[in-house]
Amino acid sequence: MVQADKGLAQAPPEPRAETLLAEVGDYDDFFDSTYPLLLQVAMASGASPEEADDAAEEVMSYLYRRWGEITQPRAYARRAVLNAVAKAKKRDAERLGRTVAGGHVTPEADDGTDLCAWENREWVLQHLNVLPPAQRAVMAGVVDDLSTAELAEALGKTEPTIRKNLQWARERLKIELAKERQRERQVPSGTETRRETR
């Protein structure tokens, strides 16, 4: 029993779902304004148009099921689509590795062009993976020929932030590439001896 005369009664809190729905608005309007942005964010992080569409669709489906429960759906959607792209890339890489290891396919192509493209893409991804997520997303957008303004809109950042992340990413990549060149120049011990004995 509530003891209202002793000042212990409190007004019941507003229902959370109703408050949040009022703040974020109608799901259809949210979908129309956010879906194109999610496609840009996904492609800026290195996804193909098809992969971006899959990731954005996955995130929007989840948000539809949880509509009214997530307090900042636009920010959540941006983070979720980046995570979806990263998970899909990891799954694809693991699947290819298992398929090749199982002897079901080889990473070679008849004319070598597919293998070269695959190797080049893997080389770029390997180097982008050393970057922190914000810098990696910016560099992926640059690779996809997005402007600073397009990247800022896609990633929900300001243009100065995009430019600074781009500067830091380039500096980090220069260091990584210099290290790689240094490793390639070093001759493993014992290699010279083997050459002399032949």
Automatic annotation (TrEMBL):
Domain of life: Bacteria
Protein keywords: DNA-binding, Sigma factor, Transcription, Transcription regulation
An annotated Gene Ontology molecular function: sigma factor activity
Record carries keyword Metal-binding: no
Pfam families: Sigma70_r4_2
UniProt domain RNA polymerase sigma factor 70 region 4 type: residue ranges: 122-173
One GO term of the biological process aspect: DNA-templated transcription initiation
Region entry Disordered, spans: 179-198
InterPro entries, per database record: RNA_pol_sigma-70-like, RNA_pol_sigma-70_dom, RNA_pol_sigma70_r4_t2, RNA_pol_sigma_r2, RNA_pol_sigma_r3/r4-like, WH-like_DNA-bd_sf
Secreted keyword on record: no
Family: Belongs to the sigma-70 factor family. ECF subfamily.
Name of the protein this chain belongs to: RNA polymerase sigma factor 70 region 4 type 2 domain-containing protein
